[in-house]
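Blinded run. Sample ID left blank on purpose so nobody reads anything into the name before looking at the predicted structure. Input follows.
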Amino acid sequence: MEIIPVIDLMGGVVVHARRGERQNYQPLQSPLCAGSEPAAVVGGYLTVHPFSTLYIADLDAITGKGDSGPAIARLRRQFPDLCFWVDNGLADVSACRNWLQQGYGDLVIGSEAQNDASTLNDFAQDNSASRIVLSLDFKDGKFLGPDGLREQPLLWPQRIIAMTLSRVGSDTGPDFELLDQLRTKAPAKKFFAAGGVRGGEDLVELNRRGISGVLVASALHAGRIGKREIAAVCA
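Blinded prediction complete.
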């Protein structure tokens, strides 16, 4: 199972995401790094484990208040060995393709930003789907996005994030029931859990259930997931 650390960018700094309440996010404070500057946070993660993938949520772009593209470009230069998964709220097919051409990494298409399934349908027609990750977004038990997108697993790319926003930063545990439901719909796909992971026991349980990976932030900063917990599921 792959462990993917997360940074949430807002106003040029990394913020601490909690329960999807973006208006209340504050600059990150963590024992892993000094301050909330993006490169410092990523460097702090790499002291825990040589992660190969980093998930970046560009909250300024997602909320229509700006663009963290320049900050992501700097991270790309500073950490060339990391694969970036970037969610920046894109829904237009042309905009998605233009972004991919810039070479920042793989694009996360968040369901909450989509009006219909047209973007996924377009990518499903060619090989560029290999650089797409679908985030199926949920909050307070409700799916965020067009119903048609959730009910058309044939359009889903190979990698799918089950994003339970109301559990992010909550330490309430992953939504195991949701993950099982999604895997039943598309058993051949790779699913990545996001939201609520508390520590090593959750990693072991997710691994046991066949989840391919997990997005984590709070548990890493709090020290509840460290070298030993990661080694237990990545051996």
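Unblinding after everyone has recorded impressions. The mean pLDDT is 91.
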